[in-house]
Amino acid sequence: MVQAVNEAPSPVPPTGMEADAMSQSRRGFEALWAVLINPLPLLVFAVLLLLMLLASAWLPQLPGQLRSEPLAAGRWVTTTAESLGALGSVLRMAGLFDVLHSLLFRLLLTATAFLLLVQSAYDALVALQLRRLPALLDIAVPGGEALPVVLPFVVQRWRAAAPGSPLTVAAQCEAQTQPWATHLERRTLRVQPSPSQAEMLATADTTSVILEERLLAWRGVSEAVLRPLLPVGMLLAVGLVWWYSAVSYQFAPAPLLPGERTSDSVLGVAFEYVLTYPTSGVIGPVLSVTKDARQELLPLTPTQLTLDDVVVTVQPGAPAILVRMLDGAPWLAQPGQATAVAELGLGFPNPGSEQALVIPHVGVGLRIIRQDNGTATAADDAFVVEVFQGSSEEPVQRVTINGSQVERIKTPRGELPLSFIPMPMFQVRAYTAPGLWWLAPAFILVGVGALGFRRRPIFLLAQAGPWPIERTVVIIQTNHAVALEGVRRTLVKPS
User: How far apart are CA 193 and CA 149, in angstroms?
Assistant: First the structure.
């Protein structure tokens, strides 16, 4: 029959309002601590961050050159949101058109970093305290008193008097822990009896020193040492994202028309849609990219190039059409254009888009409309050219452009041959960002730290000392309820 051991009375606790306040404060702190070390809130924040980063890759983002112009930035965001219909207003309120600089993203980033710091410290503290458990076996404490186990999580303690000698009880505890423990350590220490133990043992005519058996069984402690690496790796990745949002810059001009040029002073980069003529009657569209003294020519295909620390991405944009005077005369202009040119590029971002062109020398105007041919690619779309003379509101001629072709335009002075050459616009983007190689250490740390979660670290610390008459006072401290129950069932003998 096992009997509970009487322990020394505790100091009288506070009463009344003071006790209630202390209790509420403690419960509040424990609840907050439980939330901070719980991986679920961290997982939620991490998923939200990932979704926002994916949204930044899917949705158009505010060009960096507009960020210093609030009015222009507001117009850009409004236009982009309206193009997406009712969903656009929701995306705009969430800041998803400028994810890296939105308030919601910054708050999520800060909260995630804070939770990672807390959980890194918590996992490191757990690993450190678990590694210190073997040292407790050699600590001199009065017999019958529990060893000072200090861990940042709940430790269950059971204290009772069991029949048999301390050696027998220690052997029974060891037999119960062997199936799950990977490490076992035993000690036999000479300790001073506690006052209550000495008083009860005095009738047995014992000396003032008693022998106490101690046992420590554990597993998963080596894995616990790896666990802090996972939040540390995630914290490094979050730091990289923060750095990217703080120092990155993106230049995303409007799609370039044939012959058009644009540049950005922040990145020191310039783009020009150049038309080359490799052979007679053949036009080769290329993009000229200039960074400092370096120049590169990129074809009209999806391309990525790094110039110094600037990443340039190029891809074909919406359809455009190049209108040329065959004789090279500078007669072509758009309404309001002061200087006429020999060739003019016109862009058509959407089906149904139209552009106007005038030839003042011969008194005609042209309206060019993009028509959707119903195919998957915009490159197959056709163009309808309507010719107007003088103040007439009805076209005198209508032709369809399906490819590179020459059309004779009716004018009051006779027919005028014009060349129409459909070609895509150039969609370009340039940006600076920290090197992605920084992610490699983060992935390594996360991968190694994930190995630490294969097994839960558990331990059982047992103390067995003499107790009258022919009994043993046993103290079990553990974080494993199943192991504690197994030992308890072994030592408790029903009467």
Answer: 19
The 10 Å CB-count burial string (b at 16+, else e) for 85-108 is eeebeebbeebbbbbbebeebeeb
CA nearest neighbour of 170 among 461, 472, 464: 464
Q: Give the predicted TM-score (pTM) of the model.
A: 0.72
E strands, 352-487, in order: 354-359, 364-371, 382-389, 397-401, 405-411, 414-432, 458-467, 471-478
**Nearest CA to 150 among 187, 118, 125, 175?**
125
Contact 171, 165 (CB under 8 A): no
- pLDDT tens digit string along 267-318? 899 999 998 876 666 677 899 999 988 899 998 889 998 888 889 999 998 9
How many CA within 13 A on the CB side of residue 429?
17
**Integer CA distances (angstroms), 34 to 43, 46, 227, in order:** 15, 18, 18
The span from the CA of 132 to the CA of 117, in Å, is 23
Q: How many residues does the chain have?
A: 495
DSSP 409: E
* 18-64 pLDDT, tens digit each: 556 667 777 888 888 889 999 999 999 999 999 999 998 889 888 88
